[in-house]
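This part of the workshop introduces the protein records we will be handling. To make this concrete, we reproduce a full record directly below:
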Amino acid sequence: MSDRDLSGSTGRSVDRPTAHSGASTDHGGGRVRADEEFSAFYRRTIHPLVAFLINQGARPHVAPDIAQDTMAKAYRRWADLREPRAWVHTVAARALSRAAAAVAEDLVEQIPEPTALLPCPDAIAEWESRYDMLPVLRSLPSRQREVLAWTLAGYRPSDIADHLGVPSETVRANLAKARRAAAAYLEAREAQQ
């Protein structure tokens, strides 16, 4: 899932353009500036973060909650974050892993309710049928799905390796396997139709 599909925007950002060291202790203009920077970061990052989590296997009704919790943590640590975009992706991915390990899969899938971050849960099914990417991602082993989700979020293999704490060769190998598996999945699906 791309950030464009959830938010309707086309812009991608890398990170915030300015530093704001010491903003959390400044009660004057520095705090206001830091809040403005965070607000801008939040607006351009929240929808791509939700998409990233869904690409990693989060249920559509869980991804916005994890993304929102992650952003709240980022706000509290805003003055200390050097690469906030990478930080929120890493923290959100870890939260998703913990949530998946802590909660057994429901036997009956919950019907997601609309939220501000996912105003139309049916849009997921529409997107899935249009692009066939979510079923492909869900068919992959977890590490391949994780690496492909980071790639779809705009990260290079070397960046992914740094964030996941694995060698670049491992990332490249998993990415190649994921691409081969995705191609095989799509070929098999074509043959069925």
Notes: The chain has a mean pLDDT of 78. The radius of gyration is 18 Å.
